[in-house]
Amino acid sequence: MARALPALGARYLPDPVRATTACRKCLAIRGICQPVPVHRPACHLICSRHGQWLSAAGLRQLDLTESPEIVIAYQRSHKLLRSCTPQRLMIAHLAAERTLREPGPPVGAPRPARPSQRWRHRLRQLKTTNPHLGDPLQDELIHAAIYPDALEQAAAAITAQHS
Predict the structure, then answer these.
(1) Which of 35, 46, 96, 120 lies 20 to 30 Å from 102 when distance is taken between CA atoms?
(2) Lowest mean pLDDT: which of 91-95, 114-118, 144-148, 153-157?
(3) How far, in Å, CA of 107 to CA of 72, rounded?
(4) Are the beta carbons of 76 and 148 closer than 8 angstroms?
(5) Whether residue 37 has pLDDT greater than 70
(6) 35 within 8 A of 24, measured Cβ to Cβ
(7) pLDDT tens-digit profile of 95-112?
(8) Helices marked H in 17-114 — which ranges?
């Protein structure tokens, strides 16, 4: 029980965890209609079986069926975890996401061609696929839309550190 719910007093956790809600489609298959709070490894953001973005606890999940590149990027993240720790991947990913959200690149910093248009297009796609979601999920929508580009930059940073 302590490993499933770290807040109940687990002394050792191998990886960072985050509070979220179990995939609603996985729950529905088991006949469960209510949200079930869970602690998942912090790098596990998606139910790749059902294409659901597992938002922070208490927020609705995002349907990713019209944005397969997000799920593909998530699957690539598992390959990255073979060569680095979850903490290292998370730090590299957060740094990359921060640079992508900024309006312009820092002076002298290389950046992939037109990343802002790619994630902004994904953001519009996610808003179309999830019309029932409002302002409370705006940050989750942006986080999901940026995910593939940020992961690409994080992978490049991690690979450069290994070289």
Answers:
(1) 46
(2) 114-118
(3) 31
(4) no
(5) yes
(6) yes
(7) 999 988 876 555 555 555
(8) 24-29, 68-80, 86-101
d(CA 79, CA 63): 23
Closest alpha carbon to 45 in 7, 78, 67, 12: 78
Token couple for 43: 């790098």
Burial (0-12, 13-18, 19+ Cβ within 10 Å), 130: buried
pTM value is 0.79
- Ordered by start, the domain boundaries in the chain are 6-162
Distant-in-sequence, close-in-space partners of 24: CB < 8 Å, separation ≥ 6: 35, 52, 61
Give the burial class of 67: count Cβ atoms within 10 A of its Cβ; 0-12 exposed, 13-18 middle, 19 or more buried: buried
